[in-house]
Specification:
Two copies of one chain form a homodimer.
Chain A (H helix, E strand, L loop, with lengths): L3 E3 L4 E4 L7 H6 L4 E6 L3 H4 L2 H11 L3 E5 L8 H14 L3 E6 L1 H13 L7 H4 L11 E5 L11 E5 L6 E5 L7 E4 L9 H19 L8 H23 L4 H14 L14 H13 L3 H19 L2 H10 L2 H4 L5 H14 L16 H14 L7 H9 L3
Parallel strand pairs in A: 2-9, 3-4, 3-5, 5-6, 6-9
Antiparallel strand pairs in A: 7-8
């Protein structure tokens, strides 16, 4: 295990009927809030109403900023920052999935500085302070509800960049599994894929010495993300399935799975970000295309962890399956297909001729994330395995 | 999953060479500290020197309070409280294992009130504020380094009572696995048993609906506690083994394993506390006597989780072992024996005639912990299975 600091101060309020605590929790941080949300699904499923009433009852003044899109845009973040400055907002309340929460974090960081918030993402400026953020989660996927990361897409350059800072942990996140009952089947599946991708990035960061505590934790989360996703797809209103998926996705990226691994690169995310940025595909859907290709590419260098994963979570020995990396990848791939998450670029109508363009975009992020072993040729090679 | 609030604000600094950060981390909380420690092992292994220099260099005034014993005593806590009051101490620095850290928490709670600190343990008073505590851990076992609980023994009544409050989380805990290189073999083993006992209490709190995310996490921790303990016993200076055991023990009781389980009773601890209190046996050693008996007793009512545990972590199917609860208990029991942790009351020279006396003591804690299903007869019955 490598040395590490683990410090996650986010308070999680989990369960049925917890959304009305957003008001009392938010008033602790200020009187005037920016209520940030997406494209209206929370108005249909009743979450908006619960949040609005609770904030009002707690005595908060509300300025709204709806319209956050999947693969949230810098321009929308900047509009939010302008509103915060114009209305002298004290606290941001983000209600939605990872896109909304990430936008909220960017607004929190950008509202206390006079320079372009994008400079945080390109490493030209560093965060010294932020506004506080509270959150209500409506999608099990990104883990943003209990971590300090955010991913935003630059409208003009189509760069989808991520950045993290310890001041970006939400002060409180409210996780009511019932708020995810109306998540459509496709986004439910993509959310599970996203959670699995997060822990796979850690799992595949093979270290010497090994990190067996983290390995077992991750294997358990993958088993549960797959199983609970299956149950959600059978019955979208299965509370326990939604709860298990939600908690597994949160734990997948709250710092616990990666503690002790040293520097972790997130190469699958690095490549996927280019798919989302260039073709606006849902992040989880892009990941289920990249994961099998990346694993096949990685297995040429080092197949051990991929075989370990399959042996432990897919019970190779018991099922008489020969323990190969390909067996692991194949089972994962089949599962992606079963939950209707794509596994090939062609399913997005992305032609092989676009691969150099995608690699070009990914390379920019590879440089910022210091993934030095990923040359243009390497990324193109991985993408070729995703055709 | 039941509704829950998870909020663990402790900062963990983990790894080789991290002890010198105690000074800079402590000075954030005040200028005058009470340096709390045990019976001198930290003076032999160099930890004391590192801590003292770091505190001094950071500019802290130090008042010492050594001599915390295994199964820490209320009288010693009270002496610490008196020192804090006399010297106007700002912050407690606890350096040691669970006994020292628990004593530190009790000093932190008792120093800001005028009544007897024991009233917190008997539920007669509730905590409103505390002094801050920082910690350096020297034993992988109790999890006290990242939780809000404490267990203290009343000298006169021989009651060993536990109590928790959210204000009792250490502000920071420094976990250097090298600080555990000199832990003797017996206490290394007892520490692993303690960690396993913590997660077993959660695991055996069978709930409907099930909590599969928590189950897998716990199973992974048990596998790792056993495996890393084995490696520590082979080579006490195996850094990775010490690191894995240390981190597994911390994760076993930091709130994560129990989140979503609702009220959890800790019945094995309830009975063990009486062994420690009456015969001053090491807590982990007492637990390895109680665990098999309690599991055998519980299996009469509900064997499902015990079988699940064995099937998953001991690979019953693959090894052709018939999946029974007794098979699980037997494997655990054999492992306790292999690591030289006792499995019968007789190994402590406690005669069967003492069982009513132990049950009498345990019953008092059962009442405070609201373990209503544990009558005197039930506890005696369980203890009979531990003879």
């Amino acid at each position: 295990m490598q040395n590490f600091v683990f410090h996650n101060p986010t308070k999680i309020i989990f369960g049925r009927g917890t959304i009305p605590s957003i008001g009392p929790e938010t008033i602790l941080w200020g009187k005037k809030c920016l209520l940030l949300y997406g494209c209206g699904s929370i108005k249909k499923n009743g979450v908006y109403g619960q949040v609005f009433s609770s904030l009002k009852e707690a005595g908060l003044e509300i300025v709204e900023h709806g319209g956050v899109q999947t693969n949230p845009l810098l321009s929308h973040v900047k509009e939010g920052i302008n509103k915060v400055k114009a209305h002298k907002i004290d606290v941001v309340v983000a209600v939605g999935g990872g896109s909304v929460l990430d936008s909220g974090k960017a607004v929190c960081a950008g509202s206390v500085v006079n320079h372009d918030v994008w400079k945080f993402f390109t490493g030209k400026k560093s965060i010294k302070s932020t506004l506080p953020m509270t959150a209500v989660l409506t999608l099990a996927a990104s883990g943003s509800e209990m971590n300090s990361g955010m991913v935003i897409t630059h409208d003009a350059t189509r760069e989808k960049f991520g950045f993290g800072h310890k001041l970006l942990f939400p002060k409180v996140s409210i996780l009511d599994p019932e708020a995810t009952f109306t998540v459509p089947m496709d986004y439910t599946a993509y959310g599970a894929v996203d959670a699995i991708a997060h822990v796979l990035e850690y799992y595949m960061t093979t270290k010497d010495p090994a990190t067996p505590v983290q390995d077992r934790f991750i294997e358990g989360l993958i088993i549960n993300a797959m199983d609970s996703c299956d149950r959600c797809l059978v019955n979208p209103r299965d509370y326990n399935a939604r709860a298990d998926l939600m908690w597994a996705a949160t734990l997948a990226l709250n710092g616990m799975t990666g503690a002790g691994l040293g520097r972790v690169g997130f190469p699958m995310h690095m490549i996927e970000h280019s798919l989302s940025a260039l073709y606006d595909v849902p992040h989880g859907a892009g990941l289920s295309v990249i994961i099998p290709g990346w694993l096949r590419w990685h297995s040429i260098v080092d197949a051990r962890k991929i075989i370990q994963l399959g042996s432990r979570i897919f019970n190779f020995e018991l099922r008489g399956i020969e323990p190969t990396s390909n067996a692991t990848v194949k089972i994962l791939e089949n599962w992606f297909t079963r939950i209707n998450s794509p596994i090939r670029l062609a399913e997005f109508d992305i032609p092989p001729e676009d691969i150099p363009l995608i690699a070009e975009n990914a390379l920019r992020l590879a440089k910022i994330w210091r993934l030095d072993q990923y040359s243009r040729e390497t990324i193109e090679g991985i993408l070729t395995l995703c055709r």
